[in-house]
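The records we work with from here on pair a chain with its fold. Each token is a code from a learned vocabulary of local backbone shapes. A record is reproduced here so that you can trace the correspondence yourselves:

_____
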Amino acid sequence: MLTMFKYKGIKYVLLLFAIGIASCSKQLDSPSREVAGEELHWRSISETKAGLLGIYGLMRSAMITNNGHWVYGEIRGGDFSIYNRADLKAIKEGKLNAAFNITKSLSNWQRFYAVVNAASVFIEKAPQVLEHDNRYTDVNLKMDIVQARALRAFAYYYMARTWGDVPLITKSYDNGSFPEVGVASQQDVLNYAEKELLESVETLPYQYGTDNSLYYNESRWLWQNILITKIGAYSILAHIAALQGRYDKVEAYTRFFMDNYSKSNVKKLTQIHGTGGGSEALTGFYGVFSYNYGHGQLLNFAAPYLLGEATNSGHIEQLTLAQPLVNKEFPDIYVEKDSISVIFDDLNDRRFGLDTVNGLYRENYFINFQNDIPIFKKINIIRDGSTNGNLALFGSNLVFSRYEEMVLLRAEALEVLNDRNGARSLLNEIRSMRGLRTFTVLSPEPILEEIFKERRRELMGEGWLFFDLVRYHKIKQNNPKFMDLINRGGIYWPIASEILSRNSMLKQNSYWN
């Protein structure tokens, strides 16, 4: 059962987010001076719990504002077409400085610096609680601090991936004297994030609230898929290394994952559609995208109904669903039928293929394939009875990484490092789970292409495609147009004009001048 203590923590999440966004608008990219500072007095264990959960809430909000996670990774140059939204069409075409509210919002990094500052405040202030509340122990403090450091590192990875060079701020500014700060290089930012994570993983557990040691007096069943674990931190480390093209490090970090993932209760999503709680399913109401049912998540940001966090925005369903699933005539984004046929080119594919027995298409990823506009329904967590258009409430997890994603990233690294047998074995593990034929040395396609094609199929709608394309073209170096985009910094988003106007030490990313 959930306790009132947990509800109090969620209340603080929402409060801290509101305070953070308001104060962020007043400063650079807004490390908020009040977040986790003014509202909390750092005297009791309830305040450390609220402050820590507040950082998680801020990070999730930063990622989902204006559906940013999916706009950054899926719409820009991706497989989704736009039905009737000029703003999303501009983003798909790479016009990121177009004068739309969504482009202005997603060019503004202030919401991520709210995360950074809240984490820094927590790291600096939480030790005070030891002096005032004997329920709060050194072990508890250490566990809390490493989570704050890991979340701050994750925010920096996310910003470096999105904007390239960004300011690097490592202490809080809650005294109202925030100075103007220039950018640090992407390399320095990622190196800092890697260092913070490597130090944090020494303490981060595989699971919280085990039988031998409850966490905030709660068992692991409450914290599962909520807090960042050792395995979740290693998934971020692997992607930091991949962003830098350091595939030897990717191999090392993913090897740790392969050797230890079961310790975090992470499982392979062997089924496609779940039929009951705890089933290992990719799609369906009891799958990996539904709160606390799936077990494949490595790093997850949940929005469960039972905690009152289901909303009608901040979920990919807001963009992808339409009739008959919700009372909306057409989706904002969809994958064209011709593209679906090219991407899912094996009729045996359990995600989308043709059932040769009954002659019907499998509908785990798409429905209405017979219509002009198919509906992408892979992620489809709707509150029961809530299907009234924009009032529909969605409760899907934002899954940053899961077992299959990490296995395919490891396969990519092994192929780059010329371990083709190892890469082929990992690729075939995922292919076999989805009903595809085995990839062999005699297969006509180069294995690297097949690995990225499998990521395209398996991870559709999860925010990876654009960043996968960047890595792929950096490896291949055979697409002049995309390489020009990479070399001129066009893969990064422009910096919002309101950020530039408040800080004379910042300059617009050169591609967008």
The longest strand covers residues 297-301. The chain is about 45% helix and 5% strand. The two ends are 54 Å apart (CA to CA). The CA atoms of residues 404 and 430 lie 7 Å apart.
